[in-house]
Amino acid sequence: MAEHYVKVYTRFNRLWHWSQVVSIMLLFFTGARLLGLHQLIPFGLAVMVHTVVALALLLLWAFATFWLFTTGGWRQFIPRLQGMVKVARYYAFGVFKGEEHPYHKTYERRHNPLQAAAYFALKMALFPAIWISGLAYLSYGFWDGADVQALWLTLVANIHVLAAFAIAAFVVIHIYLLTIGHGFREHVQPMITGYDKVELTPEAEAYLGQKGLLKD
Amino acid sequence: MKHTVLWRSAIFVAGCAVAGAVQAQDAPVATDATPAPPVAQSTPLQSTPAPTMPVNRAPARMSDPVMELTADHSKFAILKGPFASGPEVTAACLSCHTEAGNQVMHSVHWTWDYENPATGQRLGKAHELNAFCGNVASNEVRCTSCHVGYGWDDVRHPAPEDPTRVDCLVCHDTSGQYAKQDNLAGNPPLDPVKEGSKTITGAKATAVDLVKAAMSVGEPSRENCGNCHFYGGGGDNVKHGDLSSALFDPPRSVDVHMSKDGANFTCEACHVSDKHVLAGSRYNTDVAEAHAEMMKPGADRTTANCTSCHTDEPHKGPNPLIAMKLNDHTDRVACQSCHIPEFARGGVATKTYWDWSTAGKTKDGKAYSEEEFVQSDGKHLHTYLTIKGDFKWGENVVPYYAWSNGVMTYTLPEEVIDPTEVVEINKIGGEPGAPDARIFPFKQMVGKQAYDQERNVLLYNHVYGPGDGSALWSYYDWEKSLKAGMDYVGLPYSGKFGFVDTHMYWPITHMVAPKEDALRCESCHAQDGRLANVAGIYMPGAGIGIGGKLGLVVFLMAAMGVAGHGLLRLVGGKKGGRHG
User: Is the ipTM of this complex over 0.95?
Assistant: First the structure.
């Protein structure tokens, strides 16, 4: 087995990722304004940007979900226990001693088990929590007649904010982990160029080479 | 009186007959029945004047300008007087408008008596107590100077059942010189006017010309309404806060509806009338109208609220998303809450505080006053009067906001109060979030008022009555004033009085600002925003709740975890492991 630069992130994949980055940052910024954490822009503008960006992001997610299921990309995100302990132990101890990362990326599994579990939680719990509560929040005008004391709205809003902070926590850890291993630049690079160093079997190498997905 | 009516009717009939005869002589071509011959067309109608007539009493003809109303009252002989009193003018009016007096006598303007269908309470000026001068009873000729009638000098009994005692002119005079004197139970100043007399607006009283007034009658203008309603509480804007002399000719920034540069509405554009009863009530306010589409102008004669014209989805753009969000508010927030950002705008302050307990102080045995409040136009307003006590004023006042279904419940005379608490002279009805309630702006009037320390009831005060030996404003003696007030209405009084803190609420609905001056989102969507004390709402932007706090903990734990992890790596001198 040898390492090669393989095109692991297609154009859509990268577009998806960076659109998410931009929209989630905008949502954090405007959401914080709506929460009253800063007053850098008017409230009304924040409402508008937050709403439009959120709807655009939902559209993107709809496309991404379709894309994941038609390309089989969804398999990347299925969590598994195998190797989980090793990775966890590495982040807890090994990394401080300069050990090597126990996980080796393959073409079929870009993520280590811990990473996969985190993405799975993000996609299956946090994202649905944020968009379901967000849509409920946005459509308040249609159901507020049944919410006389605004108790449900309070619940919905609190879930939305809690989920948002949890996603923010994810983002912090996500960015921090980029600094572990090869370093920040090397980790960001593949999401820009699409190519990452991956171990390939000779068969895979031959197949991917034929498809023009190898850089070297 | 009856003779007068008959006599005037006779004059009127005679006048009409003469006018008809003159017309027949001077204008032979203008008879409706005969088709005009071609020759007649060549004769210009302008060439058939009636120079002999001092007043043109003839019906208008094609050559005359088309008038707004179907009757030009200056053409009625019966209105040429002479009139010795207000009732004589009314008698002349009633000779044609036979039912008008009876209609007026069935309005709150006349009865000062209102049974609130929502609470069953008997309200109206004749019965309730307020946080200003307190009560009408025993102070009639002063208080009833604004009554829509003549000579109601005892409100313990209903206003006189006599249609000629209705004051038609106060609402219908357009000559501008008709006024009511401030202490004649509704009568106008007539010759000879007593030296120093004032009208109800505080202006120097001069004898009114009743003939001029009678011949000028027309539809009520804002001057007619304003001369009473802008001066409620005894002075300009004293009582309401959103009704002041600024509304006679307001700039657009003060009132979009009434400004000449805006819609130029009269009061009646919104306060539509039916049988001389006008829409709109501060006892039972129409705060939530669910059937806006049925309330177009002219379609319904019983409503006076914003949605009648604007619907409950009034925001259209320019940004449809924001418009939709704003429209989402209308089932909770009254239009007035955002669109009347402040009341007492336009340069006329309103009284916000009245402490009766300090009334009666004298200097060298004489009444005195202090004028510490400076209005924006530089005018000094009284902050202490021996006759009335201490005052505070406010200009451009931020309203008090509360859920309201429009139903006000009053603390009536003889209702037992708790003097250790603030007594609400009127309680604002409505449950938070209820479909019939909205968050509505109010003027909160803060006061200290006399109460019976043994019986724990509010007391009637006798304030006006020069020469009677007991009126507070003449003798500065609370003992005598309160005893006289309670005696007058026939209620028991222990003789021991104190002063209790009171609040009274006045709905704010006039002085609608131009849309560019409406409240911004931030006015409420902020920490300690305008609705911070209003229950039953979730206010985004007012700070983080439990979800936000929990979330913040999660976020901070992550951030600290990352920081700690990074620090340990730095201390260990390792950038981190490497992949194989």
Answer: no
